[in-house]
Amino acid sequence: MQRGKMDTSTCIYIDQCNLKDMFVTDSKIFWISTYCTGEKQSKCKLRNYQVCGCTAPDKLLPNGTFLGA
Fold first, then answer.
1. What is the tens place of the pLDDT at every residue in 18-28?
2. Closest Cα to residue 56, out of 44, 67, 46, 41?
3. The dihedral of CA 22, 65, 40, 47: what is its sign?
4. Phi-psi category of residue 11: left, alpha or beta, with phi > 0 → left and psi -120 to 50 → alpha
5. Does position 7 have pLDDT exceeding 50, yes or no?
6. Positive or negative CA dihedral for 43, 10, 38, 59?
7. CB of 66 within 8 A of CB of 57?
């Protein structure tokens, strides 16, 4: 693995993540493939909450925006 680059395997927090419950459409596939199994795992705002043991705000998306805002 290159320095500074995160492994693109599935995020270890995916089972606790509220993202999977926010969508039932193809949007879910986009978010998961981009942030949960993609190169943007380290930039995921939901993941940052899990890492510190905190609860993410409702409707927070991985890019830091809110669903419906």
1. 888 888 888 88
2. 46
3. negative
4. beta
5. yes
6. negative
7. yes
Secondary structure letter of residue 12 according to DSSP = T
Q: Mean pLDDT throughout 64-68?
A: 92
Residue 69 scores a pLDDT above 90: no
- What are the residues whose beta carbons fall under 8 Å from the beta carbon of 55, sequence distance 6 or more? 49
CA distance readout (Å), 10 to 33, 47, 58: 9, 12, 22
- What's the pLDDT band for 51 if we cut at 50, 70, 90? very high
What is the end-to-end Cα distance of the chain in Å, rounded? 37
Alpha helices in 1-69 (DSSP H): 19-22, 26-31, 45-51
